[in-house]
From TrEMBL:
Signal peptide per UniProt: none
Protein name: RNA exonuclease 5
An annotated Gene Ontology molecular function: RNA binding
Lineage start: Eukaryota, Metazoa, Chordata, Craniata, Vertebrata
Species, as recorded: Balaenoptera musculus
Pfam families per UniProt: RNase_T, RRM_1
Length: 775
């Protein structure tokens, strides 16, 4: 028995200990903006390990580092490592094994180009995400074997604020998001200012935006230099019948002198004073007569032409003031954190400045104190530079607070840093387990020589597969790596062009014939009711006029075809169809398969939604049982909400019922089941635009020899079909409760890089008919 235990490193289940995730309270469905965030809503009767991921967030990319943290979390449990932003696990104690399949040489382009061939992968895995192009060693990145730099003790500013480091700790300064954005050298004041594009992205009030029509500009239009004055700003708000309104403003000049501190009487009826945050009560505000307009006039008079406002989440303060200011430093964005997360002001004040603010024994926040703190944080950044701040390892210190809150306080800060920089191998070793690594002999990496890794080198992908069937049940953590020849550069370029054109043609419809006296404006309005339109072109080459409508998204085009094809429009029966080319011949099959994609199951598309749609939906939420999330896309140029959305439901049945209600006479929306997986949107946006009119042939037909090559076994299309099926069979043999990841790492070459794609899921007990395979 002992030799077998040494070989596999598997601890018998009876003796294994895992931390239990605390129960989360049952809550109502949460509607979120601009992203799908499938949080746990209620406790199932029989708990199972569940995966939750951010499904729609910007570029929807999970970094290699975040992937590593997820894997460590799967090994060690909920509170052993910081929660990765972007994905998390629930009930890890019910997770039995982890299996990672790596398809080396494949990328997102492979997956989308051979979407129909990857049938099992797209139907079995609900969670899909983008991966950045691979580094020199993809495997080392996701396991945590990267090279580390050594730094000394933490600076004096932190002594006494958090457990200090008495020994050297390892961090990679080049990977710190602050260094990645600003570099390691000291930066100027103007470099710290938010650009206009950044202000758009983070919803700062800007001149000319429709939601800022009644906002007052500060009239600060002077030329900003590195010697321009800084002013710290903080506002407190209450909740009124019209939303959040200003109740206090504090402005602090350089040197810490408060130059303005005013209580403000809101214009509308107050429904919640938010006293625990603002410190404002009815008694305090009753005698106040200062209005918002009074404050706006004072602020305009106080600020010099080149004033720079500094605050923490300053966009909220400016919106409360209903004012527009062009020169801002936001400390929540200055101290950059991974994946768009932000450090709290209280945390930064403690670890950077060594001061306590917003103490629980105080009555609400002190706006003057918060404004002064934000100003001091900006001054510290300018004085010491990004490198010194990166050396503090803020992420580790924030993790220390998370662990402390969970009752698992580490001995010192160095221990927290060490946890962040621990590899998956070291995590397994601490649990008395080993990692199984199956790979071709020619593709062995430094992981193969690690002492806590059982490496089996094979001669071919076929042998890797055969060994995987035998060895995976013996290990709690396995990595199975298959290797494929990457596309040559010329083929990559050709395939990218084909994909770009294919999606454009699938999102384009031709409609007609129409009468020569047709109402063109009414027709445009009709077709736009099905979804956002890129262009509408009048075709006059035919006997009677036709229209060519190019939609932004596939759902709009499909809905137009299903709704209008064969109906009478202005007395004429029209036909609505896609252009027929070599790239759209299998379009009907592809649309059907897209609808059955696991990520689209339970998701519906709606067109014609207004800006108040979310509020109406919340008011009648009892009609929409099982609603998990709402995606309200915005225009990337002007920040306005678009007139379509996606609703995500727990089950297909819930989605079907909601679709019937929302497209009925009371809501008067147009909709259907979703077709485009969320991760596909960001990938398509990343492709260069194609200006060619749809339907025209620009790709020459393949020669006879090339056509014959298409049916050969080693062609990428055949490889995608064969290996998708083989991995599917292996997946079905896995133990129930296995976290499974399929990673297409992407490719890197001198001709350019292709980003990767990840698919993940947990094999449910109900999906397995072979319980005897779980050891």
């Amino acid at each position: 028995m002992e030799p077998e235990k040494e070989r596999t490193g598997r601890t018998p289940k009876k003796g294994r200990k895992r931390r239990r995730a605390p129960n989360k309270p049952v809550g109502a469905s949460e509607v979120m903006r601009d992203r799908w965030d499938l949080e746990e809503r209620q406790q199932p009767e029989a708990k199972k390990a569940r995966l939750s991921a951010v499904l729609f967030a910007g570029n929807r990319e999970i970094t290699h580092g975040q992937l590593c943290e997820l894997l460590k979390r799967a090994v060690l449990g909920k509170f052993s490592v910081p929660k990765p932003s972007g994905c998390q696990l629930f009930h890890q104690n019910h997770l039995n094994n982890v299996v990672v399949f790596i398809l080396q040489g494949m990328s997102q382009l492979h997956f989308y180009r051979f979407y129909l061939e990857f049938g099992f992968l797209r139907k079995a895995f609900r969670h899909k995400f983008c991966l950045p192009p691979p580094s020199s060693d993809f495997l080392a990145d996701i396991i945590g074997l990267q090279k580390k730099q050594i730094i000394g003790d933490l600076p004096k500013e932190m002594e006494g604020s958090l457990p200090s480091s008495s020994s050297e700790v390892s961090i990679n300064l080049q990977n710190d998001p602050i260094v990645q954005k600003y570099g390691s050298k000291k930066v100027s004041l103007t470099r710290c200012l938010l650009t206009k594009e950044e202000m758009k992205t983070y919803h700062f009030p800007l001149q000319g935006f429709p939601d800022c029509e009644n906002f007052v500009p500060t009239k600060c239009c002077g030329s900003v230099t590195d010697n321009s004055p800084l002013f710290g700003l903080d506002c407190e708000m209450c909740l009124t019948s019209k939303g959040r309104e200003l109740t206090r403003i504090s402005l602090v000049a350089e040197g810490g002198c408060c130059v303005m501190d005013e209580l403000v009487k809101p214009d509308n009826k107050i429904v919640d004073y938010l006293t625990s945050f603002s410190g404002i009560t009815k008694k305090i505000l009753n005698p106040v007569t200062t209005t918002l307009k009074d404050v706006q006039r004072q602020l305009k008079a106080l600020l010099p032409p080149d004033a720079v406002l500094v605050g923490h989440s300053l966009d909220l303060d400016l919106r409360a003031l209903k004012m527009i200011h062009p020169y801002v430093i936001d400390t929540s964005l200055l101290y950059v954190r991974e994946q768009g997360r932000r450090f709290k002001l209280k945390f930064l004040a403690k670890v950077i400045l060594g001061k306590d603010i917003q103490c629980p024994d105080r009555f609400g926040h002190d706006a003057t104190e918060d404004a002064r703190t934000a100003l001091e944080l900006a001054q510290y950044f300018l004085k010491y530079g990004p490198k010194k701040i990166a050396e503090l390892n803020l992420e580790a210190l924030a993790s220390h607070q998370e662990l402390e809150a969970a009752g698992l306080e580490p001995k010192n800060t160095a221990e927290v840093v060490q946890q962040l920089n621990t590899s998956v191998l070291e995590c397994l070793d601490s649990m008395g387990q080993k990692l199984l690594f199956l790979t071709r002999e020619a593709d062995a990496t430094e992981l193969s020589s690690s002492k806590n890794c059982q490496t089996i080198k094979c001669l071919s992908n076929k042998e890797v597969l055969e060994q995987a069937r035998v060895e995976i049940p013996q290990f709690t953590f396995s990595i199975v790596q298959f290797s494929f020849e990457p596309f040559p550069p010329n083929l990559t370029e050709e395939m990218s062009k084909r994909m770009r054109i294919k999606w454009m043609e699938m999102s384009t419809v031709y409609a007609g014939p129409f009468s020569k006296t047709c109402n063109l404006r009414a027709l445009k309005r009709l077709f736009k009711s099905f979804g956002p339109v890129r262009s509408v072109t009048l075709i006059l080459e035919t006997h009677q006029p036709h229209l060519c409508i190019q939609y932004e998204i596939l759902e709009g085009a499909q809905l137009a075809i299903e709704s209008l094809d064969g109906i009478l429009v202005e007395g004429t029966c029209i036909k609505v169809q896609r252009p027929v080319t070599e790239l759209t011949l299998d379009c009907d099959i592809l649309v059907n398969e897209l609808e059955q994609d696991s990520e689209n199951q339970g998701t519906i598309y709606l067109s014609g939604v207004s800006e108040t749609f979310k509020e109406h939906l919340l008011q009648q939420s009892s009609l929409f049982l099982g609603l998990e999330a709402v995606i309200l896309p915005k225009d990337l140029k002007n920040g306005k909400q678009k007139k379509y959305c996606f609703l995500r439901f727990k089950t297909f049945g819930s989605a079907q019922r909601a679709l019937g209600i929302l497209t009925g006479k009371n809501w008067k929306l147009k909709g259907r089941h979703a077709l485009t997986p969320r991760h596909l949107h960001s990938w398509l946006r990343g492709l260069p635009p194609e200006s060619r009119p749809p339907g025209l042939r620009v790709i020459p037909p393949p020669s006879e020899q090339e056509t014959l090559q298409m049916v050969k076994v080693d062609h990428p299309k055949i490889a995608a079909w064969r290996w998708g099926r083989k991995i599917g069979k292996l997946y079905h043999s896995l133990c129930p409760g296995t976290l499974c990841l399929i990673l297409l790492p992407g490719t890197e070459s001198t001709h350019g890089s292709l980003s990767g794609l990840g698919l993940m899921g947990i094999k449910d007990e109900e999906e397995s008919n072979s319980p005897n395979k779980c050891l």
